[in-house]
Amino acid sequence: MTDQPFQLDGQQLAKICKHTLPDPDDELLLSKLQSLNPGYPIRLAKTGEEWYRLGGIVDMDGNRIANNLVEWTERTYIECGKNLQTLIEHAREHKLIATRQTGNTLHFVVQTGSKAEQFVQIDIDKTHESSDRLLVGEHNPPEDLEEFIDPLEPECVETFCIGTSRYSYRRKTDVPVFMDEINKYHITEHPVQRFMDDWNRSSAQQKAALSNDWIVRPFRHTGRFGEQIINVELINTQQKNLPQLEDISGKKGTPLHNLLTRFDRQAGYPFAWFFYMVKGKLVSPHSGVAVFKDVSGDFSYLPERDVAVLKDWIDTPYSV
Q1: Which superkingdom does the taxonomy of this entry point to (predicted)?
Q2: How much is the pLDDT for 55?
Q3: Residue 163: its pLDDT value, please?
Q4: What phi, psi does 172 have (nearest 5°)?
Q5: How far apart are CA 200 and CA 193, in angstroms?
Q6: Where does a domain end: 173, 193, 216?
Q7: CA distance 306 to 167
Q8: Other CB atoms closer than 10 Å to residue 288's CB: what's the count?
Q9: Residue 95 has what pLDDT?
Q10: Helices (H) and strands (E) in the chain, counts
Q11: Which of 20, 197, 275, 305 is deepest in the core (most CB within 10 A)?
Q12: Is 4 inside a domain boundary?
C-alpha cells in the first residue's frame, strides 16, 4: 500500500469492462484493474453463484433482433395496435427466439488500510447470452403480455451461444463511506458496523484483514411506510473445509478450547469461531455461552481483548 489514495471510478471501471474480453480465470481483467493502482493489491475475493435473467431476441440464424426482450415486446405490441394476436402471429411468422443471460458476479477487493472496514469492493458481472426458447411456441399461446414475456410453459430450442461473453460494471463500494451512510439511518449501531468494530478490537485484527474472508452485499428493502431503505449484509468467502461447532454439549475447559483452536487454525486467524457464530454459520450460539462460562470461571484461554468482545455479545447478543 502507498500514501496515494486508491483511485478507480465507475466510469473507468465501466470502460475497462467494455474493452476487456473475458478469459476463464479473469486474469486479464484483474491485471488491468491492478495496473491502474499498482500500490494497492487487488484480488478476486469471490465468484458468486450462477444466475440468469431474460435476454433479448434473435432469429433462427442467430441474427440480433433486439437486446431487450421486455422493451421490444412493449414497443412492438403498440406497433401491432395493442393487439396480442397480431403480436403472436408476427413472432411465429418470423420464428423469433428469446434468449437468456447467464452470469456470475465477480467480487474484487482492495485493502486500503489496516482496519476491518478499510477496503474497496468492486462488483463486476460476467455474462454470456444463449438461445432459450421460441418467443411464441406452436402450443399454449400466451394469454397476456406478461405470459408473452415469461411463459409458464416455454417451448425450448436447441441451445446455441450468441456473441461472446462480456463483463459489465455493477458497482463500487467504498466500505467506510458506505458504512457512514448506513449508520445515519440507524438509531442503534448497525450489526455489520458492530461486527467490524468487534473485529478491530479483537485478536482477529492482529492477524488478518476482514476482507480476506468477508465481503459486503449492499441492498435495498422497503420499510413499513413504503420508504426505500439502504442496507448491507456480510458474505463469507472462505472456501476451506471448516469443522462445525453446532453440538458442544458437555464440552468445557481444555476439550472446548481445543475445538475452538482447531476451528481458528483452519479458518486462518484467531477468534474466528466468534465471527462465524455471529454470522450464524457453522458455530452455534451455545458455543459462545459455554466459552463465556469457562473464561468467567477457572479457565483463561482467551486474550483479554477477546473476553471483552465476548462479554459484550453475552450482554447484548447480535447477529449479521
Answers
A1: Bacteria
A2: 94
A3: 87
A4: -120, 130
A5: 11
A6: 173
A7: 42
A8: 19
A9: 94
A10: 12, 8
A11: 275
A12: no
Which pLDDT score is estimated for 246?
Answer: 67
Sort 196 into a burial class: Cβ within 10 Å, 0-12 / 13-18 / 19+: buried
For residues 205 and 286, membership in a common domain is answered with yes
Which of 42, 10, 7 has the alpha carbon at shortest distance from 26?
42
Query: What SS3 class is residue 195?
Result: helix
Enclosing domain of residue 123: 10-173
In the chain, which residue ranges form alpha helices assigned H by DSSP? 10-18, 27-36, 69-79, 84-93, 145-149, 175-184, 191-200, 204-207, 253-267, 272-279, 285-296, 304-315
Question: Among 139, 173, 207, where does a domain finish?
Answer: 173
Question: Cα separation of 13 and 29, whole Å?
Answer: 10
Position 113 scores a pLDDT of 92
**Contact partners, residue 313, CB within 8 Å, separation at least 6:** 198, 274, 278, 288
pLDDT at 70: 96
Which residues of the chain register pLDDT less than 70? Answer: 1-5, 246-247, 249
Q: Which amino acid is at 243?
A: P
At residue 221, the pLDDT reads: 77
Verify that 14 and 159 share a domain, yes or no: yes
**How many angstroms separate the CA atoms of 253 and 295, rounded?**
9
Q: How many domains does the chain have?
A: 2
233: nearest Cα among 283, 303, 310, 178:
178
Asked whether residue 272 is assigned to any structural domain, the reply reads: yes
Domain-embedded: residue 1 = no
Regarding whether 67 and 42 lie in a shared domain, the answer is: yes
Question: What pLDDT is attached to residue 142?
Answer: 94
Q: What is the pLDDT of residue 226?
A: 79
